[in-house]
Amino acid sequence: MDTSDQLPTLTPADIERPSPARIYDYWLGGSNNFAADREVAERAAAAMPTLKAAIWANRAFLRRVVKTLVTEYGVTQFLDLGSGVPTVGNVHEIAQATDPSSRVLYVDIDPVAVAHGHSLLSDNPQASVIHADLRHPATVLEHRKTAELIDFAKPVAVLMIAVLHFIPDDEQPDRIVRSYRDALSPGSFLALSHAAPDLEHPAEQAGMIDDYQRSTRVSFIHRTPEQLQAWLGDFSVQPPGVVQVNEWRPEAESKQHILRTYGLLARKDG
User: Distance of alpha carbon 116 from its chain centroid, rounded?
Assistant: First the structure.
């Protein structure tokens, strides 16, 4: 039997330890989270009032990126790394509403996210989810379901949305990004968003991050736009460049202040 299809088991420790995926789900108004997740989420939002606005802006950024990729660039294959708990406006919903032939593979390490993804996608043959760690690109790229859904000889969009800030420098996020970049054919894309240092309230942000890391036991690293661009290699950043997520091709003008989170879309040329 192919054990790669087995759902991960949720243990009591998983419920008691806050999870970044489930905390994010709570911030977005989802119900796939536990008391421990909600406690950390509420403390973080209280410490940084602009945090929730950034979370919602990041989700809207993801939706705009996916729609742009399908409608303007004709991309219909998506690899969503660290996809999190399914919520409204998922990648497959946006992509398939625009082009029904779109195929989407979600990847996450959180057992709740994967279990709910399986349930959501049970009747969708062009979308699936695997339980895997994006920090091990070969495991993701060589997975049987990846081969079934994604044809890397054709353009693919790799989405790394609000996930790389969980990877510390000693785990070489640049190497991880490069491994996925190298697997892509010309005409493919990489979209990413990443938390950045807050220039107005550095002490409050530092306290929030310290609490978050101690509670989840997961690293959280802020990085600058220059650091993100350094990961792109020969990929060309598409307009409007590396900007705050609420400023990336917004559908309506907004002067809402968000906790600094940068986003970009980059293309593999030639």
Answer: 16
Q: For residue 4, count other CB atoms closer than 10 A to its CB.
A: 12
pTM assigned to the model: 0.93
Return the number of other C-beta atoms located less than 10 Å from residue 49's C-beta: 12
Q: Which of 233, 231, 216 is nearest to 269 (CA)?
A: 233
The answer to whether 152 touches 184, Cβ cutoff 8 Å, is: yes
- pLDDT, tens digit, 9 for 90 and up, residues 32-77: 899 999 999 999 999 999 999 999 999 999 999 999 999 999 999 9
| Neighbouring residues of 159: CB distance < 8 A, sequence distance ≥ 6 | 62, 65, 66, 78, 79, 80, 81, 83, 91, 191, 192
